[in-house]
Structures are given as structure tokens and as C-alpha cells.
């Protein structure tokens, strides 16, 4: 199962056999059922995850409403803000479907960074990609119409339309369920 991890990382930067073996010892595989919460509001995230199979959702609660901030599909790394700050956060992380994950603990990752400088390069590229996606979403929510947001989502995340309940997609796009249903009906014709 860690072949997915190795292939992803090697796509960023070549890895020596020594680094590959160290990663194999440090990462663990986690099988999680649908709707399993891996992180709750008020906790500090202890791991970085790679989705091997499945879909994850990050969200926070505003008043009594869940606001989806991120979907994570196969071959994507993710963690919560609290992983970096080392302080309790406000995010929830849950599986949307049965999901297989590879994860590494914060302390183990820090040790690998010290031992293997090439992993720092890999981590920087992953972090840059994460930042770009975050900024794209912020721009999308601020500058685009409801129809444009939905079109963006269907272009960039077409597989999620069948895997994720519509109410979570609406929340991610900053739309009501009624608005997203109206847009879909308009497209169908």
C-alpha cells in the first residue's frame, strides 16, 4: 500500500533507497470506515495523511452549521492547521466513504526532515500545492458567481459529484442546497 506514497513522492523528487525504507518504517496504514472522525474541534492534529483510497472532508462548525473547507481525494496529502501550530484547532476531519490512509506522526516527520534534507524539498512542494489550492478556493468564493463556482467544482472534482452528498458540496462552494439544486436543474435543461 505504501507504493502509492513512494510514487507520489518520487514524482516530486527522487528518493534514495535509505529514505524509502525510513518512510516505510515511519508511515502506518489506517483503514477507516465511512464517517469516521479523525480530528475534532479543540484537538491538535498529530499526523499528516495521504489518502490511498477514499475521500476525506475537512470542516468547521459555525454556530450550528457544518462548513466544508476541503475535500481530499486519492493521492493527496493533507493535515490540519493545528499540525503546524501545535495548538488545539477548530477543524474536524472525517471520512466520506471507507478510506485507506497512510499517516506519519509529527515527531517522526520532524526526525526524518533532520536526517534526510531531500524530504524538506518534497515537503515544501507539497505545502506550496496545498497553499495554491487554498488560495484558489478563496478567490473562487470571493470573485465568482454561484454558477461559476459550480462549474469550477465539476471541472476540477468531477469524481466527487457521485461520492459526496450534495449538501457538503454546496457548503464547500458557499452555496445553499437550494441554489446548487437550481443550478443543476438549469444545466440539465
Word description of this protein:
With 189 residues, the chain is of the alpha+beta class. The protein has 2 domains: 3-141, Jelly Rolls (Sandwich), CATH 2.60.120.10; 144-189. It is 50% helix and 23% strand. It has 9 helices and 8 strands. It has helices at 3-10, 17-26, 81-85, 106-115, 117-143, 146-156, 160-163, 166-172, 177-188, and strands spanning 28-32, 37-39, 47-53, 56-62, 65-72, 77-78, 92-95, 99-105. It has a 4-stranded antiparallel sheet with strand order 1-8-3-6. Strands 2-7-4-5 form a 4-stranded antiparallel sheet. The protein is globular and about 55 Å long. The mean pLDDT is 93.
Brief digest:
With 189 residues, the chain is α+β, with helices and mostly antiparallel strands. It contains nine helices and eight strands.
List keywords for this structure.
189 residues; Jelly Rolls; four-stranded antiparallel beta sheet; 9 helices; 8 strands
Count of runs of 4 or more consecutive helical residues: 9
Helix and strand succession?
HHEEEEEEHEEHHHHHH
- What is the fold-level CATH name, i.e. the topology of the largest domain? Jelly Rolls
Q: Please outline the major beta sheet.
A: 4 strands, antiparallel
What is the strand content? 15-25%
- Count of distinct strands: 8
Strand order in the largest sheet: 1-8-3-6
CATH class term of the largest domain: Mainly Beta
Quote the average pLDDT.
Answer: 93
Question: What's the overall geometry?
Answer: globular
Uncertain stretches of 5 or more adjacent residues = none
Distance between the termini: 43 Å
Number of domains: 2
* Cα-based radius of gyration, to the nearest Å: 18 Å
CATH superfamily of the largest domain: Jelly Rolls
Content-based structural category: alpha+beta
CATH architecture descriptor name of the largest domain: Sandwich
Percent of residues in helices: 40-55%
